[in-house]
């Protein structure tokens, strides 16, 4: 199964691990998900922050 990554340094989607792990977000199941990585990550961070606020 192919894994897709979003390179946070270049803003490019990569098939498999082509760059340093520190530059990659993923893996994602599809190229489309990897392309939406910044949006997906921001949404996850927002949800985690809401959960943390409820647990305080």
Write the layout of secondary structure elements.
Layout: E1 4-7, E2 13-15, E3 24-28, H1 31-35, H2 37-54
Structure description:
The N and C termini lie far apart (40 Å). The longest helix is centred in the last third of the chain and has 18 residues. Strands 2-1-3 form a 3-stranded antiparallel β-sheet. The chain contains 2 helices and 3 strands; from the N terminus they run E-E-E-H-H. It is elongated and about 40 Å long. The protein is α+β, with helices and mostly antiparallel strands and 56 residues long.
> How are the strands ordered across the major sheet?
2-1-3
Largest sheet: 3 strands, antiparallel
H/E topology pattern: EEEHH
Cα gyration radius (Å): 13 Å
Q: How many strand elements?
A: 3
Q: Count of DSSP helices?
A: 2
User: What percentage of amino acids are in beta strands?
Assistant: 15-25%
Q: How many structurally independent domains?
A: 1
User: Between the first and last Cα atoms, what is the distance in angstroms?
Assistant: 40 Å
Output mean pLDDT: 95
Helix content: 40-55%
Using the alpha-carbon principal axes, give the shape: elongated
Structural class: alpha+beta
Stretches where pLDDT is under 50 for at least 5 consecutive residues are none
């Amino acid at each position: 199964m192919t894994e897709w990554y979003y390179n946070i340094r270049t803003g490019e989607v990569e098939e498999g691990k082509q760059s340093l792990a520190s530059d990659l977000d993923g893996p994602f199941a599809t190229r489309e998900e990897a392309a939406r990585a910044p949006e997906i990550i921001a949404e996850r961070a927002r949800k985690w922050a809401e959960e943390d606020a409820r647990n305080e």
